[in-house]
């Protein structure tokens, strides 16, 4: 198979990244981060989530973040799409009230992971999304689906590729326009990741798939390379590698957007993203959060 000519980066730093940060950045910082990211050329970004403040305090006031973005006069912001995570009907209703452009729901391919996180089976978790999908479809609100633990689970170890394919197919047939496949603990190796993708591709069109690789074991770029080689052209990543891996103490989490873009540019694959501006944004947010920059490219280019 040939590599795609273009790849869309879905920037998850302002949601999946910040929600795992111990500091709680204010609305102004979150908005500025998203504005800077759009200015670098990123067109699709997670802006936050509508979840209980008790469980994810970092994501409070996502409605204010969306309001600020909607009021922005920056052309780059106006042309971008901002999505929010809505794990239940209450979250969806809040997102609709805040005039969100897109919402996301998430499931997992591991029964143990699902039970420990939301106290139900995979099948029960998927059934809970029926009401969300029905309401979203009534107002033509796009829904993106996430599948976690697609290769390995912190509780039950290796996950069978066919199980991933089953969950992904269910979300796709439910109405999710795109399915993001997440290596939640970042333990997958390229051969394992490829085997998982081969199973999923049998059930879902290639153009409806994205990959979401964590870099806990330093395998993220290798797994993304394998995905590109198979023809996948959508990649989730987080500026400066924001976030962490709650299942592996001290480990890094999301793959850094700067590192992904650098690799893609070296492969002559178009992203529409300016790498220098991206690196500067990564350094800026790390200083704001008083944390180290997890992007190797960012640190090298700004050294």
* Protein structure class: alpha/beta
**What would you call the shape?**
globular
- Tell me the fraction of residues in β-strands, as a range: 15-25%
Strand order of the largest sheet: 1-2-3-4-5-8-9-10
The percentage helix is: 40-55%
Overall CATH architecture: Alpha-Beta Barrel
Distance between the amino and carboxyl termini? 37 Å
Strand tally is 10
CATH class: Alpha Beta
Radius of gyration in whole Å, from Cα?
Answer: 18 Å
Describe the biggest sheet? 8 strands, parallel, barrel
Question: CATH topology, what is it called?
Answer: TIM Barrel
What is the number of independent domains? 1
Task: Report mean pLDDT, rounded to a whole number.
Answer: 94
Note the run of SSEs as H and E. EHHEHHEHEHHEEEHEHEHEHHH
Quick one: CATH superfamily? Aldolase class I
Low-confidence segments, ≥5 residues, pLDDT <50? Answer: none
How would you portray this structure in words?
The protein has about 300 residues and is of the alpha/beta class. The protein has a single domain (about 10-300), classed as TIM Barrel, CATH 3.20.20. It is about 45% helix and about 15% strand. It is built from 13 helices and 10 strands. It has helices spanning about 15, 25-40, 60-70, 75-80, 90-95, 110-120, 120-140, 160-175, 190-200, 220-230, 255-265, 275-290, 295-300; strands spanning about 10, 45-50, 80-85, 100-110, 145-150, 150-155, 155-160, 180-185, 210-215, 235. It has an 8-stranded parallel barrel with strand order 1-2-3-4-5-8-9-10, surrounded by 8 helices. A two-stranded antiparallel ribbon has the order 6-7. α2 packs antiparallel against α12. It is globular, with a radius of gyration of 18 Å. The mean pLDDT is about 95.
């Amino acid at each position: 198979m040939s590599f795609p000519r273009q790849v869309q980066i879905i920037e998850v730093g302002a949601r999946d990244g910040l929600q795992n940060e111990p500091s709680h950045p204010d609305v102004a910082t979150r908005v500025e981060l998203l504005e800077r990211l759009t200015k670098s050329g990123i067109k699709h970004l997670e802006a936050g989530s509508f979840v209980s403040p008790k469980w994810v305090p970092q994501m409070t006031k996502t409605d204010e973040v969306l309001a600020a973005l909607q009021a922005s006069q920056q052309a780059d912001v106006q042309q971008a799409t901002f999505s929010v995570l809505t794990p239940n009907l209450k979250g969806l209703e809040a997102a609709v009230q805040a005039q969100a452009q897109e919402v996301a729901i998430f499931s997992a391919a591991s029964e143990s992971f699902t039970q420990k996180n939301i106290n139900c089976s995979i099948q029960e978790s998927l059934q809970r999304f029926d009401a969300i999908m029905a309401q979203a479809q009534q107002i033509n609100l796009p829904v993106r689906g996430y599948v976690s633990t697609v290769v390995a689970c912190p509780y039950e170890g290796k996950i069978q590729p066919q199980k991933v394919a089953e969950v992904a197919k269910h979300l796709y047939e439910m109405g999710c326009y795109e399915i993001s496949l997440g290596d939640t603990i970042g333990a997958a190796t390229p051969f394992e990741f490829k085997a998982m993708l081969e199973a999923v591709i049998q059930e879902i069109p290639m153009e409806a798939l994205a990959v979401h690789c964590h870099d806990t074991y330093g395998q993220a770029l290798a797994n993304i390379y394998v995905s590109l080689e198979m023809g996948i052209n959508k990649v989730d990543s987080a500026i400066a590698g924001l976030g962490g891996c709650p299942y592996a103490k001290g480990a890094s989490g999301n793959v850094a957007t700067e590192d992904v873009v650098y690799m893609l540019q070296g492969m002559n694959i178009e992203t529409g993203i300016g790498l220098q501006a991206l690196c500067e944004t990564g350094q800026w947010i790390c200083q704001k959060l008083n944390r180290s920059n997890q992007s190797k490219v960012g640190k090298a280019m700004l050294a």
